[in-house]
Write a structure and sequence with these properties.
266 residues; mainly alpha; Arc Repressor Mutant, subunit A; two-stranded antiparallel ribbon; DNA-binding transcription factor activity
Length: 266
């Protein structure tokens, strides 16, 4: 019987999240580590104290995370032996279902369009933004962090952030283009945000990518702003590819349904 000894190198800052939200995030981080390590049913977890020490949280939070995974039958306890990955856990070797595949494909198409558009918008904003517009963009970035730290999805705040960058180009047609595209933008952001909210490392990556875009715009570096926006979109696509099966089984597919249903056909 194998032992689960490797844990994701993720530090959770307890002050950022409520206990309930923290337990859910620990559960999702553990689940993703099971997939990343290609673990199989009957693999034993370390003790609660070891997991708590690694994530720098209390054992109460770890117990909450384990309880969540037990409820989904991903984990099971064996008296006198510890906690094990349950028989119903499905390794990543299984293919995602058809709905998930369609969702990922549609979202990748939207992100591809966004990469081209938002890279150019960020570059122009770096050259043309006014001090007032920069202040608005920086405030929008702070608002994203504030609401996501409070456990909210930050979809509207994220969309507003990108709309303000478009406005800072000084070209009303860029803003009109993004506004026309706003339905797909919101729908896609709802999915990507939901996926990123399940993993602390993803959420931190998004924050850092947004900060890099704002820093480039603030410094007036068009090339760096273009690159930062492009990297943000490339990474958003990669994060979707790494979404676990449970995400698509639960909220992911539901959130992506309208995108799949409204995908243009040749």
């Amino acid at each position: 019987m194998s032992h689960f000894l490797k844990l994701a190198d993720v530090e959770i800052k307890k002050t950022h999240f409520s206990a309930g939200n923290l337990g859910t995030r620990i559960a999702n981080t553990l689940l993703n580590q099971f997939h990343a390590d290609n673990l199989n049913p009957n693999t034993r977890l370390p003790s609660e104290s070891v997991i708590a020490k690694h994530f720098k949280v209390s054992r109460t939070v770890v117990r909450e995370a384990i309880a969540i995974l037990k409820k989904d039958e991903i984990l099971q306890s064996r008296k006198g032996s510890g906690t094990f990955i349950g028989e119903k856990f499905k390794p990543n070797s299984e293919l995602v279902n058809e709905v998930a595949e369609q969702s990922v494909h549609a979202l990748q198409n939207i992100i591809e369009v966004r990469r081209g558009v938002e890279s150019e918008i960020a570059a122009l904003a770096a050259i043309r933004r006014t001090p007032g517009q920069l202040s608005d963009i920086e405030e929008a970035l702070r608002k994203i962090k504030k609401v996501t730290d409070a456990g909210q999805n930050g979809v509207e705040e994220d969309v507003r952030f990108h709309m303000l960058i478009a406005q800072a180009t000084g070209n009303p047609y860029w803003l009109k283009f993004v506004d026309t595209f706003s339905y797909s933008l919101r729908a896609a952001t709802s999915v990507t945000r939901a996926n990123e909210d399940r993993r602390l490392d993803f959420a931190q990556q998004v924050q850092e990518e947004h900060e890099a875009i704002v820093a480039a715009i603030a410094s007036g570096d068009a090339d760096q702003a273009r690159l930062a926006a492009s990297i943000h979109m490339i990474n958003a696509a990669e994060r979707l590819k790494l979404a676990d099966r449970s995400f698509w089984k639960e909220e992911g597919s539901a959130l992506a349904r309208d995108i799949v249903g409204n995908t243009p056909h040749d």
